[in-house]
Amino acid sequence: MPLARTRTLLGLAAASAAVLALAACSSGDGGSGAGDAEGAGDAYGLVKAGTLTVATEGTYRPFSYHDEGSGDLVGYDVEVAEAVADKLGLDIAFQETQWDAIFAGLDAGRFDVIANQVSITPEREEQYLFSEPYTVSRGVIVVNEGDSSISSFDDLEGKTTAQSLTSNWYELATESGAQVESVEGWAQAVALLQQGRVDATINDQLTFLDYVKATPDAAIEVAAETDDTSLSALAFTKKKPALVDAVDEALAELKDEGVLAEIGEKYFGQDVSE
Length: 274
Fold this sequence. Notes:
- By secondary structure, this protein is an alpha/beta fold.
- It has 2 domains: 33-135 and 231-268, Periplasmic binding protein-like II (D-Maltodextrin-Binding Protein, domain 2, 3-Layer(aba) Sandwich); 137-230, 3-Layer(aba) Sandwich (D-Maltodextrin-Binding Protein, domain 2), CATH 3.40.190.10.
- It has helices at residues 3-27, 33-44, 76-87, 99-107, 122-127, 168-175, 186-194, 205-214, 241-256, 259-268, and strands at residues 51-56, 65-66, 73-74, 91-96, 113-119, 128-130, 135-144, 160-163, 179-182, 201-204, 220-237.
- The strands form 3 sheets. Strands 1, 4, 5, 6, 7, 10 and 11 form a 7-stranded mixed beta sheet that branches. A two-stranded antiparallel sheet has the order 2-3.
- β2 (65-66) and β3 form a beta hairpin.
- The longest helix is centred in the N-terminal third of the chain and has 25 residues, at 3-27.
- It starts with a helix and ends in a 6-residue tail after the last helix.
- The relative contact order is 0.15.
């Protein structure tokens, strides 16, 4: 056989062996983390392969806001999303979006998930997929420290509470027989309570925990809480069931490892994931 032909055949054999070796590396378990993340991105249908793109407001303290010192995006929801992305071996990119436009952006495929204390409701479940809840909250009656006259919602009969007239807490207060003093929000309600101008205020447990974490000297306490809970979770379109399954596994691991509890302690002084 001519020498040139022999060299050509040897070259083709070597090239074929190299291609097979590369294919084996790419499909095996020993691939790099980046390769795994990119493959996961394909499986999850991510906006950008290897990156979890997360919508959040960035103006919703203590869940999603900018640190006054560093200017960094921080918050309970931000850290939960970061921990989930880390578990999945993905980079993370936040897109700050106003609440009024956040679901439209999800529908349009601008991001993969919303992390912004999205409550699970029957109406939303008809249109979206949700992860397992990572925040559990209840309604609470807040009174001045040492006030033993209120220990249940029945005790609000004939009492005065401070409530925003557009909130569901206003409805609960009136249903419980309370007289309602109209306020614009939590800060004004607490001020009236501490001044002794109202007997109590009803609000979300997380709002109370955030306030006492930031104001530890505040002489207020929880007198009673609702049986019903509000569950918040990560929200996805119905096109991403594989991503939801993976996120649920990540959240379960973060819960078992105590990571969710640590994040809750950091922002609320206690675990708020259950």
